[in-house]
C-alpha cells in the first residue's frame, strides 16, 4: 500500500509541471483584439437620419455638352437604374427610380434613417451619410465595368465610397467553389480555418491596411467594421448551406453542432457583434444572417400575450398552465445566447435581432394595436443601447401612423401606376394573381411549376394568372413551353420593371400581388378565398 502511495505521489509531482506547462501554453493562444478601435468618437447627431443627394449622369465629350439626349434613348434608360435603401432594424426596403433629364444628368434626394450603404442598382454600392452628396459618373466609351462606373461623393460618403470596391475585392470577395458544406466534419474544419484567417486579418488591421491610408478615423472605422461583418456573414452563409445536411443527419445533435460552429463569436464579439459601429456599417444581409443562424435562439415561433385587463379567472388559468409570455421569453432568450455562445445579453447585434423579430411580427397584427403595443413594451425590456431605443421608438411611431391613424392622402399617379394599369386593363373584372419573375431566379421557376395544377383547375373561373418579367419571349421559351406553364405571360422592358419595383417596393423575386375583381389589392386573402366570395 505504502509503495503504491509513493508511486502515486511521485507521478503527481512529475505530471504537475506538465499540466502547469500545458495551462501556460493554452493561455498564450489568445484571440487577437483590434487596437485603436474605435479610433473616432461617434457623436449622437451623426447617427441621425436625413436626405442624401444622389446626382450624376453620362460623361459626354466637350463638343457634345449641352446637347439633348434623344427621347427614345431616355425612354430606354429611365427606370433601368434604381437606388435601394434597406433599413435593417425594421426590415424595410425603399426603391427609388433614377430619372435622367434630357441632358443625360440626374439629381434626386434619398432619405436614410441613419448613415448606411446604399445599392445603386446595378452599378454598385455607395455609402450614404445624411447631408452629403453621392456622385455617379457613367462613361459609355469605356469597355470595362470598372471604368464605366465611377462612384464618389462629398464628406464621409465620399471617403467611404471611394475605396469601397477595392476593399470588397481584396478582403470581402467570397469563394463559393468549395463545397465543404456537403460534409459536416469538413465544414467544421473549414470554419476553423476561416476563423484563423479572420484572426490574421485582425492582426493586419492592427498593422494598418494600405487601402485605408489617408482615411479619416471614422471612415477607417466604418470600412474595418464592414470587412469584419462581411467575413462573419461569409462563414455564416456556409453554415446555412450545410443546414440541409445537418437537418437530415440523425446521428448529429443539431444544437451541439450549432453551438460548436459558432463558438468563435463570443471571444471576438467586441468587434464582430457587440460593436455599435455596426449601426452605420452593417447591412440588411449581415443582420439577416445573424438573426436566423448564430442568434436564432432569439426568434419566436409563437407569440403569447398577457390580456390587457386583469381577470381573476384568466389569472387562475395562467397560474395552472404557467405559460411563458413575451417579456420573460425575451429575457430568457438573451440568457440562452449568453450561456451557449458566451455573448453578452446586452450584445448590440443581439438587440438589433430582437427588434427585427418584433417588427417582422407587426405585419400579422396590424388590426390588433393593443397586442402590438404590449409586444413592443416587452421587446424594449432587453434593448439597452440608446440609439437602438431611439430608432425603435421612431419606427413604432411610424407603424402607428400607417396602421392606426389611416391618414388618407391624394397621391398623384406615378409612372409605375400607369404601367401597371395598362398591363391589367384587359383583365378587369377578374381576380388577379400577379407574379413578378425572371429566368435567372430558381425559386421563381419552381413557384411557376408548383402553380400549374391551380392554374389548370381555375382555367374556366374569373381569375387570371399574370406572369410579368423583363426577360424576352426568346429567353423564356426554353422553360415555359416544355413545362406547359399556362397563364398570361407579359414581357416588359427593364425600364418598366424599374418603375414597377418602385411602385410595389420589391427587390427580391418571386414577388406576388393579388387583386380582387374590383381592383383592390388583397394582402391577407388567397385566390380561392376571393373566388368563394364571388359566388
Structural write-up:
The structure is a single chain. With 535 residues, this protein is an alpha/beta fold. 48% of the residues lie in helices and 14% in strands. The strands form three sheets. A four-stranded mixed β-sheet has the order 4-1-7-8. The protein has a four-stranded antiparallel β-sheet with strand order 3-2-5-6. Strands 11-10-9-12 form a four-stranded mixed β-sheet, with helices on one face. Helix 5 runs antiparallel to helix 6 and helix 17 packs across helix 21 (494-504). The longest helix is centred in the N-terminal third of the chain and has 27 residues, at 2-28. The protein is globular and about 65 Å long.
Short description:
It contains 22 helices and twelve strands. With 535 residues, it is α/β, with parallel strands linked by helices.
What class, by secondary structure content? alpha/beta
Mean pLDDT: 88
The biggest beta sheet is recorded as: 4 strands, mixed
Number of strands: 12
Low-confidence segments, given as residue ranges, are 1-28
The N- and C-terminal alpha carbons lie at a distance of 96 Å
Write the layout of secondary structure elements.
Blueprint: H1 2-28, E1 50-58, H2 71-77, E2 82-87, E3 92-97, E4 105-112, E5 116-121, E6 124-128, E7 133-138, H3 145-148, E8 149-153, H4 155-172, H5 184-207, H6 217-241, H7 243-248, H8 254-261, H9 269-272, H10 278-281, H11 284-292, H12 312-321, H13 326-341, H14 348-361, H15 369-380, H16 386-405, H17 415-424, E9 431-436, H18 442-450, H19 452-457, E10 463-469, H20 473-480, E11 488-491, H21 494-504, E12 511-515, H22 527-533
Parallel strand pairs: 1-7, 9-10, 10-11
Antiparallel strand pairs: 1-4, 2-3, 2-5, 5-6, 7-8, 9-12
Amino acid at each position: 500500500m505504502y509503495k503504491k502511495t509513493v508511486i502515486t505521489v511521485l507521478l503527481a509531482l512529475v505530471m504537475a509541471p506538465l499540466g502547469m506547462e500545458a495551462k501556460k501554453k493554452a493561455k498564450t493562444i489568445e484571440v487577437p483584439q483590434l487596437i485603436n478601435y474605435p479610433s473616432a468618437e461617434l457623436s449622437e447627431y451623426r447617427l441621425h437620419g436625413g436626405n442624401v443627394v444622389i446626382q450624376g449622369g453620362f460623361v459626354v465629350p466637350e463638343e457634345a455638352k449641352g446637347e439633348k439626349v434623344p427621347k427614345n434613348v431616355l425612354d430606354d434608360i429611365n427606370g433601368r437604374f434604381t437606388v435601394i435603401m434597406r433599413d435593417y432594424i425594421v426590415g424595410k426596403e425603399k426603391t427609388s427610380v433614377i430619372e435622367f433629364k434630357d441632358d443625360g444628368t440626374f439629381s434626386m434626394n434619398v432619405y436614410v434613417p441613419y448613415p448606411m450603404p446604399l445599392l445603386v442598382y446595378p452599378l454598385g454600392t455607395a455609402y450614404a451619410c445624411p447631408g452629403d452628396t453621392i456622385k455617379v459618373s457613367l462613361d459609355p466609351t469605356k469597355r470595362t465595368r470598372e471604368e464605366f462606373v465611377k462612384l464618389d461623393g462629398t464628406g464621409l460618403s465620399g471617403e467611404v465610397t471611394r475605396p469601397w470596391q477595392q476593399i470588397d475585392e481584396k478582403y470581402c470577395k467570397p469563394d463559393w467553389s468549395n463545397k465543404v458544406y456537403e460534409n459536416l466534419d469538413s465544414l467544421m474544419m473549414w470554419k476553423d480555418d476561416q476563423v484563423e484567417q479572420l484572426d490574421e486579418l485582425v492582426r493586419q488591421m492592427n498593422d494598418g491596411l494600405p487601402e485605408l491610408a489617408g482615411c479619416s478615423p471614422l471612415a477607417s472605422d466604418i470600412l474595418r467594421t464592414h470587412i469584419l461583418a462581411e467575413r462573419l456573414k461569409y462563414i455564416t452563409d456556409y453554415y446555412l448551406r450545410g443546414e440541409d445536411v445537418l437537418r437530415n443527419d440523425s446521428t448529429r445533435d443539431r444544437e451541439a453542432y450549432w453551438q460548436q460552429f459558432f463558438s468563435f463569436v463570443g471571444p471576438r464579439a467586441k468587434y464582430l457583434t457587440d460593436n455599435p459601429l455596426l449601426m452605420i456599417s452593417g447591412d440588411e444581409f449581415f443582420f439577416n444572417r445573424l438573426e436566423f443562424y448564430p442568434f436564432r435562439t432569439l426568434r419566436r415561433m409563437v407569440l403569447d400575450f398577457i390580456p390587457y385587463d386583469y381577470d381573476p379567472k384568466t389569472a387562475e388559468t395562467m397560474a395552472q398552465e404557467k405559460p411563458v409570455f413575451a417579456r420573460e421569453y425575451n429575457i430568457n432568450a438573451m440568457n440562452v445566447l449568453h450561456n451557449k455562445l458566451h455573448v453578452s445579453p446586452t450584445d448590440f447585434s443581439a438587440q438589433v435581432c430582437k427588434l427585427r423579430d418584433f417588427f417582422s411580427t407587426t405585419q400579422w397584427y396590424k388590426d390588433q394595436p393593443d397586442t402590438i403595443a404590449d409586444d413592443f413594451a416587452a421587446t424594449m425590456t432587453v434593448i439597452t443601447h440608446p440609439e437602438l431605443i431611439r430608432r425603435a421608438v421612431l419606427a413604432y411611431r411610424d407603424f402607428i401612423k400607417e396602421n392606426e391613424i389611416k391618414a388618407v392622402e391624394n397621391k398623384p399617379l406615378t409612372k409605375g401606376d400607369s404601367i401597371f394599369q395598362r398591363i391589367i386593363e384587359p383583365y378587369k373584372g377578374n381576380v388577379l394573381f400577379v407574379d413578378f419573375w425572371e429566368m435567372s431566379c430558381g425559386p421563381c421557376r419552381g413557384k411557376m411549376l408548383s402553380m400549374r395544377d391551380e392554374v389548370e383547375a381555375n382555367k374556366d373561373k374569373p381569375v387570371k394568372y399574370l406572369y410579368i418579367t423583363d426577360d424576352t419571349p426568346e429567353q423564356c421559351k426554353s422553360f415555359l413551353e416544355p413545362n406547359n406553364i399556362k397563364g398570361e405571360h407579359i414581357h416588359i422592358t427593364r425600364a418598366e420593371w424599374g418603375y414597377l419595383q418602385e411602385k410595389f417596393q420589391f427587390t427580391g423575386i418571386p414577388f406576388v400581388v393579388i387583386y380582387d375583381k374590383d381592383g383592390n389589392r388583397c394582402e391577407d386573402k388567397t385566390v380561392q378565398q376571393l373566388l368563394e366570395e364571388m359566388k
